[in-house]
Amino acid sequence: MIINDYATAEYWDRLYTQGRSYRPVTSLETELFQSLVQTKPGMTVVEIGCGTGEWARALASMGLSVTGYDLSGVAVAEATKLTEHDYGDLRFAEWDIHSATPPYRLVPQSVDIVTCRLTIAFLNREKFVKDAFRWLKPRGVLHIVTPVHEHLRPNEKHRGLTEQQISELSAGLEQTRYAVDLDRSITGLVLQQSA
Ligand SMILES: C[S@@+](CC[C@H](N)C(=O)[O-])C[C@H]1O[C@@H](n2cnc3c(N)ncnc32)[C@H](O)[C@@H]1O
User: What keywords would UniProt list here (predicted)?
Assistant: First the structure.
């Protein structure tokens, strides 16, 4: 029997204990994000599946107020350690977004931007998008970066969303889609409720 254990903290803890890291954040990625999301200093951001926090630190360096959540305690401990030096307004907490109880900070309509980088393939997408728009202020932005299934090698396919799944994510929402890398294997989505 094949057991899909991506949904467990143990799976991710094991990888992070082995020193696992993911695609480094590039300057192109941060520039595209800033220009497409039109960030302003002081905006509040929730980063879901933050891992060891590289993207969260990049966001805090833009002057944003960032909270990163991850279900892996090992990743959150490492993210917190790497952020000992001053990265601005930034914090991390352990939280499985599929659990019933949300963190006390995540009150409805309190957040300007929700981001989710290289993580959505491991989440219950429908629930995540619904939750994100509940946390967001009325014109808040849901920003997703995901590998595209069709462009991945066979052993990496589980990390990406298919083109069909990407279109389903944006159904009924205003959408800007862009390529995060030159070979278009990683896509970015900026999603908003219609004005
Ligand atoms: C491929 S890694 C990406 C990490 C980071 N976003 C990056 O860009 O380097 C996926 C991350 O999602 C986290 N994750 C998976 N399922 C989760 C869940 N249900 N709730 C919170 N985090 C989750 C994992 O622990 C892991 O850190």
Answer: Methyltransferase, Transferase
